[in-house]
Design goal:
heterodimer; A: 145 residues; alpha/beta; 5-stranded parallel β-sheet; 5 helices; 5 strands; 17% strand; B: 152 residues
Chain lengths: 145, 152
Amino acid sequence: MNRRVLIIDDSADDVEMLERFLASEATAIRGVTDSAQAEWAFQDFEPDVVLLDLHMPDPNGLEILRRLRGPRRALGFLPVIVLTGDTGKSARNSALILGADDFLTKPLDRHEVLLRVRNLLRTRQLYVELAEANQALERRLPQQK
Amino acid sequence: MKGRTYAEKRRVLIVDDNADDVEMLHRFLTQEGTAVRGVIDSAQAERAFKEFEPDIVLLDLHMPEPDGLALLQRLRSSRAMIGFLPVIVLTGDVTKTARDFALLFGADDFLTKPLDGAEVQLRVRNLLRTRQLYLELAQAKRALQRRLPKGG
């Protein structure tokens, strides 16, 4: 099972810390500090989970959530965890409306980061396994005339 | 639950010993296309889980025995057999220990009391959407299996 983690955060220190926290859990990690590169990295890296900071220079996290909506939908279940120092209700609910699956509040706690990423990767894995099983079944079907 | 299709009503099971909270959640979550059941006696939770076949569970942590963590542990294997069956933990306890234990036992999300109606609706909606994606695939799988030649 692939456990590819894409981190989008304009703070290089936070990216570096998250990479350290997730080194044992992920099969591959890519960090992006320039949010303008986020969509491209999403297409290119094909992550299994995205960690996305909310407060960044344009495009900010909410804008990226909006832009990734279509691509995420096309993939089935592709979880996004929002990182934020902002614990206000409005930021949180806006992110939820735009399809965030979970939150991590800064300052980040290593154990919590690991557990939340692990749980969402498990759900992603269930989804991918079922999708692959269906593809295998389709291949076994007799060819339609 | 094997035969559930995604066209059916979504079922929400609430387990909370506080009847007021159950009633409030009920109000937040009752809408067209959703069936809600509340359980205030946590000893009845497992039975309700089997009987009601929920699509999502909202589970209070602090209850007389069995408490929320014990229930998370007891429901683990049933949930694993079902595939993806999300549990949102409700808690007034924002300590790291409570949160990490719940995550460790497979909670998918948290709602901190006092509850915010909009947040409850959004988190439930998002997890139900994930559940629906999963159910759609499971249904597609059953359809594919029926189309396979016998013994094939």
